[in-house]
Structure formats: C-alpha cells, structure tokens
Design a protein that fits this description.
Blueprint (H helix, E strand, L loop, with lengths): L4 H61 L6 H25 L6 H22 L6 H29 L8 H4 L53 H12 L7 E6 L5 E5 L3 E6 L5 E6 L10 H14 L5 E9 L2 E10 L2 E13 L5 E5 L1 H6 L13 H4 L7 E12 L5 E11 L6 E6 L6 E10 L2 E4 L1
Parallel strand pairs: 7-9
Antiparallel strand pairs: 1-2, 2-3, 3-4, 4-8, 5-6, 6-7, 7-8, 9-10, 10-11, 11-12, 12-13
C-alpha cells in the first residue's frame, strides 16, 4: 500500500517527534543524574568536613582531660567527648554507606564515647580521675591524634580536587590492633601536616562580647554627630574638618563612624568614647621586635588615658603585631575587659585600636571575700604532672555568659616539657573551672 504524501509527512513528523522526545528525555535524565551526583558529592564533602571537625574536638578534649583531676570542668569535657564521638560516627557512616571495612574506626569512636561516659559517671559520684583512667585517656588521645591527622589529610586532598568519594571505601580500612584505622593507601600521609588552631590567640580568652548592654556606657549622655566627629578627630590628632561622616550603627553598642583617606574611627553614641580605629597602612620590612611593639602599644594606651591595663599576649600577622591588654586593678586581671592595639613592625606606627571588649564588659566587680583557698593552697589541687611557672588572680568568662573569680596557674607538663598549660581553680569551690593549652609559634601565642 502506497503512502500518500500527507501520511508520509505525518510519519516523518511523528518519528522526528519521537527522536526529539528521546533526546530531551535523555538530556533531562543526564542533567538529573549529574544533579543527583553533585548532591551526593556535596553531602559527602559536608560529612567528611564534619567528621574532621569532630575528630579535632575529640583530640582537643582528650588532651585537656590530661591536665584535670576531676570536678565539673572534667565532667563537662567528658560529656562533650561523648557527643562528639556520636556525631563523628554518624558522619563516618554517611560517607562510607555502612561499609564493614570501617568497623575498626567505628569501634574506636564507640570506645571514646563509652569510656568517657563511664569516667563522667565516676566523677558524678564524687570520685577523682585515677592514674589508670588517665593512662587509658592518653592511649585514646594517641589514636585520636593519628586519626585526626589522616582525616584532615583526606579533607586537604578533597579541597585540592584529588580525592574521589568513590574511592573512600577502599582507603578507610581496618589496620588491625594498632589503633590506626586507616588503609595502606594512607600510610605515607603527610605526617608533617600541622593541625593549626582555628582561632589565632586573642589573649587567654576571646573578647567574650555578650548580647548585653554596656554597663560602662549605661546612663551616660548621648553625643551628637558633630560632638562625635570632634572626639574622633582628637583621637587621630586631626581637625574635625579633616574627617568625613561615614555611617551610624544602632544596637548594643551604637556608634558614629568617620573616615579620611587613611583612617576609619567609630565613636560610641553614649559617652562619646572611641570604640575602634583602623588604618589602611601595611608593614614593609620588619625592623622591630614584638617586645618593642608591646612598649609602643603600652605608651599609646597611656596617651589615650588607659593606664590600668596589662599586656597579656600577642600575635603577629604580615608584619603587624596585635597586643592584647586586659584591665588590671589591685592585683587582679579582668580578661573580658579587653583592649587590642596593633603595631606595624617596620616603623612602630599604630595601625589599629579596639576597645569593644572593654566598653562592653568593664564594670565594678565584687571579689569574693569567703574563699576556701589561698593561691598557695590552690597549687596542691593541681595534678602532680604539672610544674607551676607562675600564678595570679583573675576574673575569667564562662560559657554561660558570666564571669568567675579564679586563680590562674601557668604550668608546664613534666611528662611533656614542651607543653604549657593554663589551669584555673575557683577559690570559692576549690574546683577546676577551666584549662587552656598554650602553643608558641613565630607569630605569637596560640591556644586551645
């Protein structure tokens, strides 16, 4: 039967439509497949990064636990360890899809959580941590460090585009009784990779700027924009007409901000106090030492009227040394009342000033009069492994947006002389209330 011309056209059109539909369907499926693959990859990347974060947290808290005998702080750390181990296992399962090859890693993480939970229960009964428990925690710390380094190496490879998530199942393997549960492909992992802290040291404590109103500025008279301009100009040693208005901010610390070609300055709306100054200068060839920078920063603060402060620590980045000062009165350091001054190490120029911590936290405190311990007696509560370098009285911030009066003991570990530790003891309760690990580098002091 012959096809009519009309039927022929219809047939060709139909075939073309089918071909086009198949092509579109294939394209759509390919796009959907690529989209699904991207989604899976992104999910794996996120899980791997979170696994690294939780392993870092486990390592850090295990290390901190080595310098505490017991009490609420150690109980808090062991609780954090349990939570981190549970979250690490969840992320590990996600990137390996429950592959049995990671049974050793999974077992290790389970032991971290279960053992630290056991220690926490012992502490809740009023017992101190035993030597055997300390040794077990130290073993877990060794495994955790190795595991953390290896997973961070995987993360680094992924960031460089050198890691395929399809190959993760073959690289995460059990390696027997050594406690290092990573495959032979990672045996040559870069062991020199340094796990730097996320935050560069900002004094023994960060600014601890809470969502609260400044008691220092509360009740003070509000200044006008022109009055604030005069304050800003005077701070820079300029005339008011040499700086221009930039912006006004509202909030817990409302300010007027001004600028010229070299500086930006903010002045509080209440009280008319400079909260920060930032310059556009950068450092060239380094000629000054950090100690010389500290002297220049101290003199600068005296000129600005801040005489009751003591420098604590510093950090150096790109030739700029930032010195952290804390309020100091009657032999007590108030770490939350923080002022930062940055000094260029080429010519000693002041490049930045920040008194936000001081403005938000400074107030009259009441020092506890009834205490169980003197600073000398407090020494006896430290672990025998710690040798005291110095000690002092201080107000330190807590995680609950409050402060506590404490004795700060700067120590060195006898078993690890390169490790310095800050241990804080509450003289009212006799409990260890915090511990920080000090790490020195060419750029200053780091802490965890």
């Amino acid at each position: 039967m012959k096809l009519t011309k009309r039927k022929t056209v219809r047939t060709i059109s139909f075939l073309c439509a089918i071909t086009l539909t198949l092509a579109v369907w294939g394209t759509v499926n390919a796009v959907a497949l690529r989209s699904a693959e991207r989604s899976i990859t992104q999910s794996n990347e996120r899980a791997l990064t979170q696994l690294g974060t939780y392993l870092d947290d486990i390592t850090l808290n295990l290390q901190k636990s080595m310098y505490l005998r017991g009490g609420d702080k150690l109980s808090e750390i062991t609780s954090d360890l349990w939570r981190s181990s549970v979250s690490a296992k969840e992320n590990l399962s996600e990137i390996t899809d429950g592959n049995t090859e990671i049974s050793g890693v999974y077992k290790f993480l389970s032991q971290v959580g279960e053992y630290t939970l056991y220690v926490n229960k012992e502490l809740a009964r009023g017992n101190s941590i035993s030597e055997e428990q300390s040794e077990n925690l130290n073993k877990l710390l060794e495994y955790s460090r190795d595991m953390s380094n290896r997973v961070n190496y995987l993360i680094q490879q992924e960031e460089n585009g050198l890691l395929s998530f399809r190959e993760i199942k073959s690289t995460l393997q059990s390696s027997g009784d050594s406690g290092v549960y990573l495959g032979s492909e990672l045996n040559d992992a870069n062991q020199s990779l340094v796990d730097y802290p996320t935050l560069i040291y900002d004094g023994p404590f960060s600014d601890h700027i809470q969502n609260k109103k400044s008691q220092l500025l509360e009740g003070q008279k509000e200044v006008t924009e022109e009055e604030a301009r005069e304050k800003a100009a005077g701070f820079l040693g300029l005339k008011p007409e040499q700086i221009a208005f930039l912006s006004r901010t509202e909030g817990n610390l409302s300010t007027y901000t001004f600028y010229n070609g070299d500086y930006t300055v903010a002045v509080t709306k209440k009280g008319g106090i400079v909260s920060f100054m930032l310059s556009s200068f950068y450092a060239n060839e380094i000629k000054l030492t950090p100690q010389q920078a500290i002297k220049k920063a101290t003199q600068y603060l005296k000129e600005k009227g801040y005489t009751s402060v003591r420098d604590s620590y510093y950090s150096t980045v790109d030739g700029i040394c930032t010195v952290n000062f804390a309020y100091f009165e009657d032999g007590i350091t108030y770490y939350t009342d923080l002022i930062k001054v940055s000094v260029a190490l080429d010519d000693g120029r002041i490049t930045a000033f920040d008194s936000t911590g001081y403005l938000m936290n400074h107030r009259v405190r009441t020092v506890p009069q009834t205490v169980k311990l003197t600073p000398v007696r407090g020494k006896r509560l430290l672990k025998s492994d710690l040798e005291i370098i110095s000690y002092k009285k201080a107000f330190i911030p807590t995680e609950w947006e409050s402060e506590v009066y404490a004795y700060e003991y700067r120590c060195v570990s006898k078993s690890n002389p390169s490790q310095e530790v800050l241990v804080y003891i509450d003289p009212v309760t006799g409990q260890e209330c915090d511990v920080l690990l000090l790490m020195y580098s060419d750029g200053g002091v780091l802490t965890k």
